[in-house]
Amino acid sequence: AMHDVFRLMESAAASPIPVLVEGETGTGKELVARAIHRMGPRADAPFIAVNCAALAETLLESELFGHRRGAFTGAVQDRQGVFEAAHGGTLLLDEIGEMPTRMQAKLLRVLQEGEVVPVGDTRPRAIDVRVISATNRDLRDEVARKAFREDLFYRLAAFPIRLPPLRERRDDVPLLIDRFLRDTCRQLGREVPRLEPASVRCLVEYAWPGNVLELTNEIQRAVALAQPGESIGVDHLSAHVAAGTGAPGNAPVAAAGAPWIATAHGTAASALASFREARTAFERGFIEDALRRNSGNVT
Questions:
Q1: For residues 124 and 286, what is the distance between their CA atoms, to the nearest angstrom?
Q2: Rounded CA separation 209/26 (Å)
């Protein structure tokens, strides 16, 4: 699933077309936006991200378009908005689905005209900004409910990229564990601990409603709990992860329906010396089971 995302990112980076990154919380939407910016011709220009859900409507307008001194109480000096600050570069409008309807109309005009008017000013200022939007909502449903402007949706969603939740790409979990484990230990100046096979199994089977962000936090927590030289066991995991519980409707993969899990992390795996060896056994078992189910047909 991520290979499809990477291909779309490469295509988007080569074009100025507006991109809408869709995905659940914690799937890495801002990372995708930053990667598109770095791969494109605007890489040396600014990349600025603004969370549309974090500011009140009055503050959001000033944040986006800037304001003149005296435009409102507390405006003691002229202030440049993020559209102007990102001139020549890329602006990420995160949580775009949370933007108030009145602000949506003003944003649409800016995108159509290529210019902004700061709060309290009357003179438009030309801008050259690539806009990438991100949302954890289904904007099509929002449009149907009249909660999001249809004309703005079609302008922002010219090139949609959907990020799959972690439960739809469980094969990536061992690789992500390895990455986050090494990153965390490097930050803490500690040796990378071993993960017991039972711990790996719990991490793979869990539904991860918080996606990659939740997995990152879980690994950091486990490393903090483990004593130097101690392997990470099930007792170092959060109770809900160890129990295999997740968000409603996101049931974890059952061992009975995934014999490759038992192959990789069963009794024979208890003697594995390192997480890397456990991961290798996990992958081998997965591939062997796929071959058995397809009568050895590799294609």
A1: 59
A2: 9
